[in-house]
Specification:
302 residues; alpha/beta; seven-stranded mixed beta sheet; two-stranded antiparallel sheet; 9 strands; globular
Length: 302
């Protein structure tokens, strides 16, 4: 692809920038995020539509402020990924503080497999690789459009001991990993289409939600343990929350998925700019419902 050399050059610059002090790196991220806000019209438009759907009671000015902040946080997190992808373990520990590890250790001492539910907040990579310094994990990934970016992402995780499983391999390797007593880092909060999904409210809007989380927990005999990583002024904090008790009727995925979406909502309300709003979370709609991302004359650039 013609854009691939440009992406590789950009990745080289990002790797070099990762050696900078965090304050300077974040300043560059703010500049990059502001630039992307003005240039990435499709992503800006998707972000604003998502915020209108999820925060209808906010004013347009309030939603735009969240969206602008999101682009800055997104750019910062992208540059800082190269610290965790290529930095030494001591620097990763300084960058990201881990809270609640004792909850995971208690489950492992009982011999229980664990699914670490990690929603798509901007600190997701920092939290995942910080946790990898404590124990081996498996993670499912989807190849990016750019081969160079996919290589950088997988190499950065594998070097710290992650077992990477491609989404195209399906859930069988994940179930096998769990049945062997492993820990799975899993992020199912994206719209992957109608297949194997049910519509579950997300901020009151029906969202196509894959049923893999409760199915994996049931098939692998695993406990679900939520973890959310927050970007802070000093770096990141990865917080491991209380484990979820297994549902009485595990054959019905809806209660677990509803709990997942409600949990993500509660975390978003604490740091709304840090969630992945540029993903088309509502692209799959119930029959007869209009597509929210359809083109309209309204301009989103102001």
């Amino acid at each position: 692809m013609k854009r691939e050399p440009l992406i590789r050059f950009g990745l080289l610059i990002a790797r070099l920038c990762a050696a900078l002090p965090l304050g300077l790196l974040r300043g560059l991220g703010d500049l990059l995020g502001t630039l992307v806000w003005w240039l990435a019209t499709p992503r800006r438009r998707v972000t604003l539509i998502n915020l209108r759907l999820c925060f209808p009671d906010c004013s347009e000015a309030e939603r735009r402020a969240i969206a602008r902040a999101h682009f800055r946080v997104y750019a910062r997190s992208f540059l800082e990924r190269f610290i965790v992808w290529q930095g030494d373990p001591d620097r990763i520990r300084r960058l990201c503080r881990l809270e609640g590890l004792e909850r995971l250790e208690a489950l492992r001492q009982q011999g229980l497999p664990v699914i670490v539910l990690a929603p798509h907040f901007m600190g997701i990579d920092a939290g995942a690789l910080r946790l990898l310094l404590e124990l081996p994990m498996a993670s499912m990934f989807a190849p990016q459009r750019s081969r160079a970016l996919t290589e950088a992402m997988t190499a950065g995780r594998v070097r710290l001991g992650a077992t990477m499983i491609a989404r195209r391999e399906g859930v069988r390797p994940l179930v096998r990993w769990l049945r062997e007593g492993g820990v799975l880092h899993y992020s199912p909060d994206m719209d992957l289409g109608r297949r194997e999904a049910v519509f579950v409210p997300f901020f009151g809007v029906p969202a196509a939600t894959v049923t893999a989380l409760p199915r994996l927990a049931r098939a692998g005999g695993a406990v679900i343990l939520p973890m959310v990583t927050e970007m802070t002024a000093e770096g990141y904090v990865a917080r491991i929350h209380e484990p979820w008790q297994r549902a009485a009727d595990e054959s019905d995925p809806f209660p677990v998925l509803a709990r997942m979406n409600a949990f993500i909502e509660s975390q978003i309300r604490q740091m709304p700019e840090q969630y992945l709003w540029s993903h088309r979370r509502f692209k799959t709609r119930p029959e007869g419902e209009p597509q929210p991302y359809a083109r309209t004359p309204r301009a989103d650039r102001r």
